[in-house]
Amino acid sequence: MAKVIGIDLGTTNSCVAVMDGGKPKVVENSEGARTTPSIVAFTKDNERLIGQPAKRQAVTNPDNTLFAIKRLIGRRFDDPLTKKDMELVPYDIVKGKNGDAWVEAGGEEYSPSQVSAFILQKMKETAESYLGETVTQAVITVPAYFNDAQRQATKDAGQIAGLEVLRIINEPTAAALAYGLDKQDGKTIAVYDLGGGTFDISILEIGDGVFEVKSTNGDTFLGGEDFDSAIVEYLADQFKKKENMDLRSDKLALQRLKEAAEKAKIELSSAQTTEVNLPFITARMEGGSSTPLHLVETISRSDLEKMVGDLIKRTLEPCKKAMADAGVSKNEIDEVILVGGMTRMPKVRETVEEFFGSKPHTGVNPDEVVAMGAAIQAGVLQGDVKDVLLLDVTPLSLGIETLGGVFTRMIDRNTTIPSKKTQTYSTAEDNQGAVTIRVFQGEREMAADNKLLGQFDLVGIPPAPRGVPQIEVTFDIDANGIVNVSAKDKGTGKEQQIRIQASGGLSESDIEQMVQDAEKFAEEDKKRREGAEARNQAESLVHATEKQLEEHGDKIDASLKSDVEAKIAELKTALEGDDNDAINAKAKELTDVAMKMGQQIYEQQQAEGATEAPTDGAAAGSEGGAEEDVVDAEFSEVGDDDTNAENKG
């Protein structure tokens, strides 16, 4: 049975894990790293790069390097947070044909689900390389505070990547699974998850294999990217004060600042000060000549803490709300688990300790624990992990718009999922023949202030005075947190049902097209890899054959030597082009003549050996025939410490 893999699709980094021998194992990628940067880039010749190779070239190709794409997934173009993101990234965010936020790179437009699918493909290939088999199913994690549109868009990304997404699981819940799998005693824990782009806090009760989420809260636009941006702003301001030039208008300089900011942030988790040194960051034009300018700035840990103090404080309000919703006080929480790369920052740990009144648990790897939890959930679904029950919750209230634009809640936030609820409504006007059901998600009292998930019409209601028809509305949330809504006229039995799809979102045909595009990219990537391998082998063959010709050219016929030299020249010509088939064909031709050359060299050496053989008594041994010239010998391998080798004849 094929393995189901667990994937942590992160804002900054992604990670994949599998169950191996009853335990979750994080799988290293082709670069040998356990996490992969969530970055996709398109080069000038339209080559697609994913992960570390994409990150390495970001400074020289900022317009076509897509990072932190998770912040846009499931968002509308006119969302205020999309506008905020536009100020933070060097690539173009554009309005998709469905009104969603899309991105532009390499002259093409991509949906965030499509870009995320490229990253998921890399994770899929990483797992396949380790397992030695094709992977088709996965559990993918999302921030607990993701709304329905963001969850659906993540599921779409999995489908585009060629994966059947068996479950969407919340990141803090996954972390709790990895932390508490082998713990039998009952505990109340808080999972504080501050990652690259999002913040979540979840309160759980765990024990005897039951993981019950009591409440969750968070901020889907708060994370390491914002910490980096604060440092970038500081560096740009300092440079402007000294040189009277604003680096923010230069995309290339801005990308260098971002890289330096991330590096400084990481260094200041273990050091008290760090120096940011960026030579030739820009140039000043004076009198027809340019003077290069350099940025050199020392940042202390206390400087950084001042810059990001407000960001860290923003995590505390969701913590208060989560505890209130769970009905627990600080002293009732037995353990606080830190998840996400940003929790390595000393000030974050200090703030968490002050708020909860106890030292947080740091025994899990904050970058890997979520993927490990996803792998455990995959094991549960596959039947490999027994006696584990996971009870999660919906992060936001769900309801419909009723008379006067009021948001009427059907399912409250932090309700255990899967969940189903039915309520009866009526018409607002006499002889109303149809009703529009508008579905919202959020916590505000007026529907317009919440997130519109979708709408549909129930038509064919018989004419009747207002308040008489009975319309039964049913909300159904599955274990992924994805919503289905149906409406039924009890009088006629007419029913209308939809799987809620954001008013934007991707249609089935969009997804199908993107699946084909992803397959095309995968095929192109495969061809490029095969081309590189063929080129390397051909170049090695040329080098080895030339060396053999140089050392033993006098031992072969002139005609064969000429033939070998001609085939070397033909292969070199093929290597100047990009036709892999031509390179492979010429390499085969050279291999064939090189084998003939090797055979002639060997025969020549044997002939020379025969003429030099002694003709006295030693020759008597040859009378038994040619076969007796070969002696079978046993030999023992000589280790580094061996001084004597023993041959036994």
Provide a descriptive summary of the structure in words:
One of its GO terms (molecular function) is ATP-dependent protein folding chaperone. The chain is an alpha+beta fold and 649 residues long. It folds into four domains: 4-182 and 366-389, Nucleotidyltransferase, domain 5; 224-311, ATPase, substrate binding domain, subdomain 4 (Actin, Chain A, domain 4), CATH 3.90.640; 394-503, Substrate Binding Domain Of DNAk, Chain A, domain 1 (Sandwich); 551-611, Up-down Bundle (Substrate Binding Domain Of Dnak, Chain:A, Domain 2), CATH 1.20.1270. The protein is 37% helix and 27% strand. It contains 14 helices and 30 strands. The strands form eight sheets. Strands 1, 2, 3, 4, 11 and 12 form a six-stranded mixed sheet that branches. It is globular. The chain starts with a strand and ends with a strand. The model is unreliable at 616-629 and 633-649 (pLDDT under 50).
What percent strand? 25-35%
Task: Label the structural class.
Answer: alpha+beta
Q: CATH H level of the largest domain: which superfamily?
A: ATPase, nucleotide binding domain
Euclidean distance between termini CA atoms: 52 Å
CATH class group of the largest domain = Alpha Beta
Count of runs of 4 or more consecutive helical residues: 14
Q: What share of the residues lie within helices?
A: 25-40%
Report the strand count: 30
- How would you state the average pLDDT, rounded? 89
Fold-level CATH name of the largest domain: Nucleotidyltransferase, domain 5
Global geometry: globular
Q: How many domains in all? A: 4
CATH architecture of the largest domain: 2-Layer Sandwich
Question: Could you name the ranges where pLDDT drops below 50 across 5 or more consecutive residues?
Answer: 616-629, 633-649
Q: Roughly how many Å is the radius of gyration?
A: 33 Å
Largest sheet: 6 strands, mixed
